[in-house]
Amino acid sequence: MSGNTIDPMHWGAPAPDVLRGLAEAQAEGAGRKLPPVDKWNPAYCGEIDMRIARDGTWFYLGTPIGRPALVRLFSTILKREDGKHFLVTPVEKVGIRVDDAPFLAVEMRKERDIRGPLLRFRTNVDDWVGCDREHRLRFEAGAADGLMPYLHVRDDLWAKLTRAIYYDLVDIGEERMIDGQPMFGIESGGEFFTMANAQQMRAAL
Question: What is the pTM of this model?
Answer without folding.
Answer: 0.84
